[in-house]
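The passage that follows is intended for readers who have already worked through the single-chain material. We present the inputs for a multi-component assembly, then the predicted structure in tokenized form, and finally a short commentary. You are encouraged to pause after the input and sketch how you expect the pieces to fit together before reading on.
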Amino acid sequence: MKYNYDKSALKGLSIMPFLNQVKTRNKMIEAASDEMPQSIFNVNRVAAALHPAWQHVKIAKVTDHGDAKSYLLIADKEKGTEKLAYFRASQYVSVELNIDGALVNKPYTIRSNPADALGAGSSYTLTVKLTNPAYASKHILDNWKEGDSLSISGPLGDFYYQELRDAKHVVALAGGSGITPFYSMAAAIVDGIEDFDMTILYGSRSSDGILLKEEIEELAERSKGRVKVVHILSHEEKEGYEHGFITAELIKKYAPEGDYSVFMCGPRAMYDFEDGEMAKLGLPKRRVRKEMSGDYLGVEKNPDYQAPQEQEFKLTVDIRGQKQTVACKAGESLLWAMERAGIAAPSRCRSGECGWCHSRLVSGKYFCPKETDGRRLADEKFGWIHPCCTFPLSDIEIYVYPIVR
Ligand code: FES
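Having made your guess, compare it with the prediction:
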């Protein structure tokens, strides 16, 4: 076939550079240095800034709330952290603790405004309340003071508002210190970082023990009607407060007409109760979200758990060929047993979500509650476990990856 097109635009162009292309390229390769290029791809720079494995922080201020304290954390530049990573409102960081030789990582919600992480004065605020089990919170409340240095993870967790998935109005169910993620969301709404409306149903025992009461009400006032707070007291009847638990009827009373999402954060007993209330409301599954980070307690109450006869098992931990055998009680997670024995085992969420503790089962039987089993089917098939929510049913051996710094 003959093409009839105008070739005049090509006049004056030499074909030689094209013919010499390979020769020229080989020359450039020969002339190049053998050293690895020192530049870092921008995408890697951004990833390192947003998702650091570790951040070094100092406690700049401690605020006492009675049975809880708030800690203002700033970047510890002397240890190499120039500024703190940005986060989504209601994410958490995992805090590294050494409690009498036990090496523990515990997740705590960043309860401040994400905007506080930006700029020169980059900071997070963590609010820690004495909780059950108290080993970590008591250690923090008794020991942390201004000027202390800490190692914390980058921000983690997916308990945040997702415009594509969640309704435009969130009904937030908070129990006790479970107010912290909603505090962060409220601050983000007031600041214009987040764009949704939120009604917080905040359950406390009595009116004199409401954590961050004035602070959250002040945010609600500044929100121009976008954030509302309703207090519910379980152990006191008082004018201006609802009484009892956060029931389906109460949710209906304060939820908007039409579509809404329910977000909840509180103790496991609250989730068990609210599961029944959600069924009464008939909300689709995608409209109900729970903050899951933290230890799975009371495995013996799980209907699928068959309590073993023995009270204690041997747990053998292999880290790069170095084996240690430690005691693991029935009903306690493999992670707890390792931590108690002073083994530095990786973890973040402690609830089967993040995969940070991913380890290989060498031998033994175990139980993993369905609600914390975040493994893929292939993980289970090929013997991978999450020690944070794996409970022994026999002596057990696992291969654990070392903590990466
Ligand atoms: S610590 Fe997150 S899955 Fe185990």
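Commentary: The domain at 50-152 is CATH 2.40.30.10 (Elongation Factor Tu (Ef-tu); domain 3). The chain has a mean pLDDT of 94. How closely did your sketch match?
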